[in-house]
Amino acid sequence: MAEILQLIIYGIVLGSIITLGAIGVSMIFGILRFAHFAHGDIMTLGAYLALIGVGPLSLPMLGVFPLAVVATGLIAAGIDRLIYRHLRSSSPIIMLISSVGTALMLRSLIQLIWGPDNKIYTQGISMPYTYADLQIKPEQITIVLGTVALVTLLHLFLHQTRMGKAMRAMSDNMNLARISGINTERVIFWAWIIAAGLGAAGGIFLGIDTRLNPIMGWRLLLPVFAAAILGGIGSYYGAILGGIVIGISQELSTLFISPAYKPAIAFGIMVLMLIFRPTGIMGGQK
Amino acid sequence: MSLLQVDEVSGGYTSVDILHDVSLTVEPGEIVSVIGPNGAGKSTVMKAVFGLIRVRKGRIAFQNQDITGLRPDTIVRKGLCYVPQEFNIFPSLTVRENLEMGAFVRQDGGLAEQMELVFQLFPPLKEREKQTAGHLSGGQRQMVAMGRALMLDPQLLLLDEPSSGLSPLFIEQIFERIIEINATGVGILMVEQNAKKALSFSHRGYILTMGANRHEDTGQNLLVDPEVGQMFLGG
Amino acid sequence: MELAGLLNYIVFFLTVAGIYAVLVLGLNIQWGFTGQINIGVAAFFAVGAYTSAILTTAPSPDHLGGFGLPFLAGALAAMAIAAALGLFVALITVNLRGDYLAIASIGIAEIVRLILKNEEWLTNGVRGIPAIPDPLSGLVQGSHPALFLLIVLIAVGLVYFAVERLFRSPWVRVLRAIRANEEAVMASGKNVTRFRVEAFLLGSAIMGLGGALYAHFTSFISPSAFEPMYGTFLVWVMLIAGGSGNNRGALLGTFVIWLVWTGTEMFTSQAPEEWITRISAIRIFLIGLILEIILILRPQGLLPERPPRTPEADEKRRSGSSAE
């Protein structure tokens, strides 16, 4: 029993990271109508940008975190300007392929600059808190709380600010948004800032929880998309639910099958969703 | 000066023209209906005015300013608002948020005031202010759609089949609201399938067939014209 | 570089290009003909390679094997197993949006990769399967790369002509009609789903053949040979660069991109040790950049798709009306 609860705890930690990626993927899908396959590498980018601050510059993570998040957001908006903007009228498939190209470029740039080896933010192992046979590391608590905070901020943004409402409006009905005079390119800019920023946060959390390497985000792409699809692609709250479910399922699966096959779990869940309920649990767009 | 002047406009969604030299005008404060059989291109005229389709030939002017080929979000700032026939609300937003989106480009801070006016015009919306728009009935959704378009206090309102999909009771109500809106000085250009009803309160009407002008007269005259009656005033 | 060395290099270059060409032609059937986006090409490539390897190698304690079947049997089995995998994927995703197929294909590729790495009783895991027999071993003495190149070229030729014939057949005209206007085709009573699945199967089978050729060419395979970069992304860039939807474009794209890829490899071999991985990264960046440039500036590729020469099209051309 304790083992199950422990795995659930790990699952929530992993799930938080996946959620941050899945929200971004859902957001880009809702507004730009394509599956952004470079999102995993955006998460990697965030992690490595934070590494610049924490590593050679020896700044505290608390300060570096928001900077890396914003920087990643701006870079993603820049990529949109340079590449995706030219393809706005292309089919979603072409945009998907284009994002694969972006993923390749991001990943190889990161490998070029930092090399292929694993890296970590700080040396040393921290002592986990224990409570009745259950363990959790302090960083893991930070990750979960941090995710909760970010998701709350997102909710406030989407429901209390003009730009946030415009984003939801565009996601609902792009044409009507244009007709109402909403500046769609400005909304798209903010969508990239937020989606990539949240992804960067997820990447940094992943780096804190495990380690950094150039394919860390690409490895997450499948669970992230599985979570978004599970929750209903285009639905932010669905992405949260999906992320936690995928995270917990992956961890619990180690009770039955070899840990090497963990990524297959996300895939399996996703396939089941696609067969039985493609609009997802919360019924996002098809 | 006409409020809206459409001069011999030809165009369509692709390289094939749907509209052929269509002309019409709307004078300030008028209600003008565009009627005709299905597929006559009525909705397409509206989309041409609002910059949603390609205008290959001709000119469209709003208050003497050339708006041919301008983007919708530019046109909307000039005081011309459009209510599409379908998909004309933001379903996951609340009623209030829908109206707020209508006023997105407002710079002058008159948003709250305008929203009050819209609520006075459509009292059921006030009651359902915080409800998700997608859960409302057809008639209420149409009110949201029109309310959204009014948030910018336009001089001209384009309505694409405002009665479509509504029950007879609601149709009556919507038309009454349209007359009320017009009474405040807003010009109305309306495409309507329910020709008889539309003409009965329109100042003028245009008959379009196969994407071209067929006939034009005052609303009353068109109502009693036997040829028009034969064509589509049966229903 | 002396002549013999140069010739050897050219033979090597053309052989690998030929193997890639087979993969690209297979992908073209899935993407070019029916618009199905398969980002798991590496899985079908790998499955074909491993199937042929397992069926043709001598008995070994390290992995499943010992069937000692000839190359042709291995190749055919490779195609069959790859097609079976394709059937599995197609049935799940055939009626879903392209994005879903894309992510599902990544999932399949991932699962195949995990199985290859972890099921050591089958594949010997990361240590790989060595000593895959040369198809010519019964017929000639020693190793003859030029003869193997011939085998590859024959395979490319066969696949190309088979697909070209298919291109003009009624079957494909339905596919093209589906691409243009699915509803009209469905209304006319044809089973769109069946055509899509068939196209996906055929493409998968051809990719399996490419895998078999690869296995017998290198005589040693391991999971790392089928990394997404080499097994999937390069294939995609080759297809997009050449012109998706048409087979000549596919061949041209394969040749050009392979030229770029191996051309840049010269820099890696000249570079000092620490720089090797960095130069590899630059090469991958370059491939990604080429893909973006093509998508933005010339999405139709080097050889844009032309309508096929069918009897009706020829008739139209003769009578002077506009092309299809």
Protein architecture, described:
The complex is a heterotrimer of chains A (286), B (235) and C (324). Chain A is globular. Chain A is 72% helix and 2% strand. Chain A has 11 helices and 2 strands, in the order ααααββααααααα. By secondary structure, chain A is mainly α. In chain B, the strands form 2 sheets. Chain B has a 6-stranded mixed sheet with strand order 6-7-8-3-9-10, sandwiched between helices. Chain B has a 4-stranded antiparallel sheet with strand order 2-1-4-5, with helices on one face. With 235 residues, chain B is an alpha/beta fold. Helix content of chain B is 36%, strand content 26%. Chain B has a domain at 1-79 and 154-162 and 186-235: Rossmann fold. In chain C, 47% of the residues are buried. The model of chain C is unreliable at 308-313 and 319-324 (pLDDT under 50). Chains in contact: A-B, A-C. Chain A binds chain B through residues 162, 165-166, 168-169, 171-173, 175-184, and chain B through 50, 52, 71-73, 76-77, 82, 84, 87-93, 97, 100-102, 104-105, 148, 152.
Please give the structural blueprint.
The complex is a heterotrimer of chains A (about 290), B (about 240) and C (about 325).
Chain A: H1 2-32, H2 39-54, H3 61-82, H4 92-114, E1 129-131, E2 134-136, H5 138-160, H6 162-172, H7 174-179, H8 184-209, H9 216-231, H10 236-253, H11 262-276
Helix pairs in contact in A: 1-5, 1-6, 1-8, 1-9, 1-10, 2-3, 2-4, 2-8, 2-9, 3-8, 5-6, 5-8, 6-8, 9-10, 9-11, 10-11
Chain B: E1 4-12, E2 19-26, E3 31-35, H1 42-49, E4 54-62, E5 65-66, H2 72-75, E6 80-83, H3 95-102, H4 111-121, H5 123-127, H6 138-150, E7 156-160, H7 168-183, E8 187-191, H8 195-200, E9 204-209, E10 212-218, H9 219-224, H10 226-232
Parallel strand pairs in B: 3-8, 3-9, 6-7, 7-8
Antiparallel strand pairs in B: 1-2, 1-4, 4-5, 9-10
Helix pairs in contact in B: 3-6
Chain C: H1 3-33, H2 41-56, H3 71-93, H4 98-118, H5 120-123, H6 145-168, H7 170-180, H8 182-187, H9 192-218, H10 228-242, H11 247-270, H12 276-297, H13 311-319
Helix pairs in contact in C: 1-6, 1-9, 1-10, 1-11, 2-3, 2-4, 2-9, 2-10, 3-9, 10-11, 10-12, 11-12
